[in-house]
Amino acid sequence: INVLDPKIAKKKFSDEEDKLLMKLYMLHGAKWAMIAKKFKERTPDMIKNRFHSSIKKLFYGEGPVEDKKRRSSDLK
Predict the structure, then answer these.
(1) Cα–Cα distance between 21 and 28 in angstroms, integer?
(2) Distance set, CA 9 to CA 49, 67, 69 (Å)
(3) What is the rounded CA–CA span in Å between residue 24 and residue 31?
(4) What is d(CA 73, CA 76) in angstroms, rounded to the nearest whole number?
(5) What's the Cα-to-Cα distance from 74 to each of 33, 37, 66, 67, rounded to whole Å?
(6) Fewest C-beta atoms under 10 Å: which of 14, 29, 35, 60?
(7) Taking the alpha carbons of 56, 11, 39, 34 in that order, is the dihedral positive or negative?
(8) pTM score, two decimals?
């Protein structure tokens, strides 16, 4: 990550951060700048990317691709 601000965290998101992100998304929707204010070491882009790469799948109940194929084939 090419970040100039040394306060920005480059570590993985913790479980607590993921839970907070889900909670704040439920309250505010996709207002990443507003949500990021609750994360001292994360930027709005980091928050948005985390949601779309990992949390969104949990939030909307999407599983791995194999599970989707299996579920769609079960309907036939």
Answers:
(1) 10
(2) 14, 33, 37
(3) 9
(4) 5
(5) 41, 44, 12, 10
(6) 60
(7) negative
(8) 0.70
Per-residue pLDDT tens digits for 29-72: 999 999 999 999 999 999 999 999 888 877 677 655 444 444 44
Give the list of residues 6+ apart from residue 64 with CB closer than 8 angstroms, or none: none
**Euclidean distance between CA atoms 48 and 44, whole angstroms:** 6
CA distance 37 to 65: 33
Q: How far apart are CA 76 and CA 72, in angstroms?
A: 7
Query: Which residues lie below 8 Å from residue 3, measured CB to CB, with a gap of 6+?
Result: 10, 43
Contact indicator for 38, 21 with CB cutoff of 8 Å: no
30 vs 10: CA distance, rounded Å: 22
